[in-house]
Amino acid sequence: MSYFPLPRPARIAVMASGRGSNLEALLKAFPHDNPLGHIVLVLSDQREALALQKAVEAEVEAEYVPWPKSRDQGVAYQTGREQFEQVAGQLLHDHRIDLILLAGFMRLLSPAFVQAWQGRILNIHPSLLPQFPGLHAQRQALEAGVSESGCTVHFVDAGMDTGPIVLQRRVPVLPGDTEETLAARILEQEHQAYPEAVRMLLAGDFR
Ligand code: GRF
């Protein structure tokens, strides 16, 4: 059974580590008066993330949640990931979040966390998965010499960029492309693909 569609607007949280251009596209697509859903919370593991600023500008609650470097602290030892997930989990609960969108969130969440949000947590990745998971997807595509790349919106599971695919958008790889030119071409598609995938999910058009 799918969690969506809901009989009310979905409450969405975005997790982002960096510049937040996907966040911006999502904020535009899901403002407070969108009947399908709206973004009510933005979390970042980076205090200086531009994404947090963009959330504030859009008058959406923005929270920095540290992901501390793990070091041995004796009996009460918690890894950085455990600390992040505990605080983030509480915020998600307090804000009655229905759906989490990872948008340039550069951390791997634990299997237990991801399991608890199964079917309600999406990610966007700048390649045509299952090709080129992980870091530097655009560089990987150029090095592999493929003639086409793109982006993928997928459900998050315990693996790295491995969950079921919701939708993909393709772009050509052109002669003379650099990592930057290819990344920019893909990013343009990301900004359309992510809102589109979220719309499909919230409307119950994706099972
Ligand atoms: C995007 O290319 C996204 O696919 C990847 O990280 C980048 C984030 O960019 N996961 P931005 O922070 O949304 O601008």
From TrEMBL:
Any one GO MF annotation of this record: phosphoribosylglycinamide formyltransferase activity
Write down the Pfam families for this protein, in alphabetical order: Formyl_trans_N
User: Is this entry keyworded Nucleotide-binding?
Assistant: no
UniProt protein name: Phosphoribosylglycinamide formyltransferase
Binding residue positions for N(1)-(5-phospho-beta-D-ribosyl)glycinamide? 20-22
The GO biological-process annotations, alphabetized, read as:
'de novo' IMP biosynthetic process
Q: Where is this site: Raises pKa of active site His?
A: 161
EC number(s) for this protein?
2.1.2.2
Q: Which UniProt keywords apply?
A: Purine biosynthesis, Transferase
Write down the Gene3D superfamilies for this protein, in alphabetical order.
Formyl transferase, N-terminal domain
What family is reported? Belongs to the GART family.
Q: What does this protein do?
A: Catalyzes the transfer of a formyl group from 10-formyltetrahydrofolate to 5-phospho-ribosyl-glycinamide (GAR), producing 5-phospho-ribosyl-N-formylglycinamide (FGAR) and tetrahydrofolate.
Organism name: Meiothermus granaticius NBRC 107808
Q: Entry's HAMAP family?
A: PurN
Question: Which Gene Ontology terms of cellular component type are present?
Answer: cytoplasm
Its recorded reaction(s) are: N(1)-(5-phospho-beta-D-ribosyl)glycinamide + (6R)-10-formyltetrahydrofolate = N(2)-formyl-N(1)-(5-phospho-beta-D-ribosyl)glycinamide + (6S)-5,6,7,8-tetrahydrofolate + H(+)
Q: Domain Formyl transferase N-terminal: where?
A: 11-198
Q: Does the keyword Transferase apply?
A: yes
Name the domain of life this protein comes from.
Answer: Bacteria
What does the record give as its pathway? Purine metabolism; IMP biosynthesis via de novo pathway; N(2)-formyl-N(1)-(5-phospho-D-ribosyl)glycinamide from N(1)-(5-phospho-D-ribosyl)glycinamide (10-formyl THF route): step 1/1
Summarize where (6R)-10-formyltetrahydrofolate binds, as residue positions: 81, 106-109, 123
Task: Indicate the residues that form the catalytic site.
Answer: 125 (proton donor)
